[in-house]
Amino acid sequence: MSLDSGDTAPDFELPVEGLEGRDTLSLSDYRGHPVVLYFYPKDNTPGCTLEAQDFRDLQDEFRKLGAQVLGISRDSVTSHAKFRDKQNLNFPLLSDPDEIACQSYGVIKEKKMYGRTHVGVERSTFLIDGDGKVARAWRGVKVKGHAQKVLETLQSL
């Protein structure tokens, strides 16, 4: 599935880490507010750590615009808790071990590394407007400067 600007963002309910008093979270919980939904391959890996740190460091700017940042990977809630604590993350991380959201957003891709083929999460970000529509989608994200680009796009909406 390929989501484009103007498409309705698929809703989901997933286990969450880092949201006081909540065990699960749905995209529809944020209806009326923009959401930065970013999919990443794995907790505590260099690129994923840098990406999370960049979103963490810009969190105040996203909040000023009324936006919520949400990170999703196939890692467990326990792994997310360790990652969040180690990196002092200030936004929720959602666990998608069954690839519910990953499949509905079309981020599971065949990848090649060191000559071997495997299936994994393609680093992707979706900016979702308050009406639940995809305002912008980035696929095959290069980490450096990406969070800033997302913020600038949000500012221009």
Descriptive account of the structure:
The chain has helices spanning 46-57, 59-64, 77-87, 100-104, 146-156, and strands spanning 13-17, 24-26, 35-39, 68-73, 93-95, 108-113, 116-121, 124-128, 134-139. With 157 residues, the chain is α+β, with helices and mostly antiparallel strands. It has a single domain, classed as Glutaredoxin (3-Layer(aba) Sandwich), CATH 3.40.30.10. A seven-stranded mixed sheet has the order 2-1-5-4-3-8-9. The radius of gyration is 14 Å and the shape is globular. The chain starts with 12 loop residues before the first strand and ends with a helix.
Envelope shape: globular
How would you classify the helix and strand content by structural class? alpha+beta
The CATH topology corresponds to Glutaredoxin
Strand content range: 25-35%
Tally of DSSP helical segments: 5
CATH architecture: 3-Layer(aba) Sandwich
Low-confidence stretches: none
Instruction: Please give the domain count.
Output: 1
Distance between the ends: 25 Å
* N-to-C SSE string, H for helix and E for strand: EEEHHEHEHEEEEH
